[in-house]
Design brief:
64 residues, alpha+beta, four-stranded mixed beta sheet, two-stranded antiparallel sheet, 34% strand, globular
Amino acid sequence: MAYPTIKLRDRQIILVSGFSRPTDTAGRRRPPVITDETMLKAVATANGEAVAFGYVKGKRFPAA
């Protein structure tokens, strides 16, 4: 399974969970919709070394 990446604070961040993958009417994938993007930015700032983040039970956490 390929995890989506986003650019945040001049680096690529891997989203392990906490996103949805919408498709259009032709079945093409659209950019991921991030659950609680504000919290993701705060956790990414607090954990500057982490490159992957997850989302479980309403909380973001660094995964790698």
